[in-house]
Every structure is written in structure tokens, then in C-alpha cells.
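Budget justification note: compute hours in this period were largely spent on complex prediction jobs such as the one shown. Inputs:
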Amino acid sequence: AQSVSQHNHHVILSEAASLELGCNYSYGGTVNLFWYVQYPGQHLQLLLKYFSGDPLVKGIKGFEAEFIKSKFSFNLRKPSVQWSDTAEYFCAVTSSGNTGKLIFGQGTTLQVKP
Amino acid sequence: GAGVSQSPSNKVTEKGKDVELRCDPISGHTALYWYRQSLGQGLEFLIYFQGNSAPDKSGLPSDRFSAERTGGSVSTLTIQRTQQEDSAVYLCASSSSRAEKLFFGSGTQLSVL
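Corresponding output:
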């Protein structure tokens, strides 16, 4: 069965620090990968996605993620975080061409100190 | 409406009672998902509807949980004989195609006393 593992449950950074959130998935076939974000008091929303092509994908607000197939990883990065990036981040995966069942990781809470 | 609408936003019930949670997806979206969000547990997949296909019910935790989607639009998640461990936020999401960008509702906070 598909599963997603996010290594960091709670990350605390100062503004301008660099961010990397780990995400690993278990599935042997071709996958589609996503990062969603939930800002305090707001709905979950899509940050970025990877379906095919360039394994380095760029999303909103300066975020990017790199798909490394050999490592089954899709880590999220941002060179310099801002206080407004304080949120919960979820990695998610679905197998390409399947019924679309999207499996989420446990989430990582990011707290950025001003 | 412009977004995914869920009702009620909050539901407090007594152990053993049945509850119904409603989701109105974005008009025209063929895919509809139910997830459960518990503190520290992330988003737990419950069930997925895609058009007229048979729903993927593989995430429903027990036979007390069921869901239906009428006319390819509104969906109702029913929990029978609620237990305290059912307390969580139940999220609904819809998308225009298979596992493309999901649009989430604000959820129903269920508290079972």
C-alpha cells in the first residue's frame, strides 16, 4: 500500500533561515507528488506538484521541491523563510493513472520566529 | 458556491449517537474526497468518489462509517454509533479530474463526548 512519511514533525526557524522538509513515499510505480500547506485558520491549499518532466518543481511563494526517484523522495525547500510561512505542510502522493486516491503524510508544523 | 462547503462546521454529539456530515463540492468537479484530520496524525484518507465509478472505500476505518454521493454532487458522510475516538476534523475536498489540484473545505469539527 502507498504511504508517505514526513521526517520532521515540528520545525522552528528564524526568519531568513533556509528550509528543507523531508518527504519519502513508498510505492513502486509511477507517482504524482504534491505539497499542500495549511496556514493558521485557513483551508489546505496546493503549494506545488510534480507529475512528470523536470524533477525540480517550483511553487508559490518561493517554494520548490525536488523529486529524486532513486530515493523515493520529494523534499520541500525554500532558501529564506518568512514569518508568514508559519503553517503546517503536508506531502502527498498518488499513483499515476489510478483512481486518484491521494495519500497524505503526517504533516510538518513550521514555526518561523520573527 | 465558489468553494467547497461543509456543514455543520462544528458538531458535538454523545457517544453512541449517529451523525451526518455534509459536503457540497465545487460545481462541475467530478472527484470528491473525505479525509479525517486528527492532532499529530495528518490527513487520513477515508473515501474517494470519481464520477459514476464505484467509490474507493478502502480508508473507512470501520463499518460504522459510510458515505454516499447523490447525483454526482453533494456527499454525506455518516458515522453510526459514534465513539470518542471518532473525534476529529472531517475534511472534504473536490477536484476537476483525477488527483489534480484538490480544493478543500473548512471541515467539520466533530466532538464525541
